[in-house]
Structure of HTH-type transcriptional repressor PurR:
Amino acid sequence: MIAAKNLGRSIPGDLSIVSMLENQATNFFEPALSGIDWKAKELGEQAVMLLVKIIEGRENIISGRTITTEFMVRDSCGIKR
C-alpha cells in the first residue's frame, strides 16, 4: 500500500488489494483491507484431532476434511460496504 502510494497509485482506484491473512489488524489499514478468512483456528483444531486419532491408532488413513473460507469485503477492493 505504501509502495502504491509512492508510485502515485490509489487504492482502490488504480489497484485492488486482498490479504490472505484475515485478522483484526486489517481494520487499521486505510483503506480497510479486504481479506480471506481461512479459519486458521478451525484448521489447527482439525489437524490436532486427526493427529491424536492417528497416534492412538484409531485412524490410519488420512481422509479429506473441508473447512470453508470467507471473503471479507472491505474498501481496498473497490467495493463499498
Summary: Residues 2-77 form one domain. The helical segments are 2-6, 40-55.
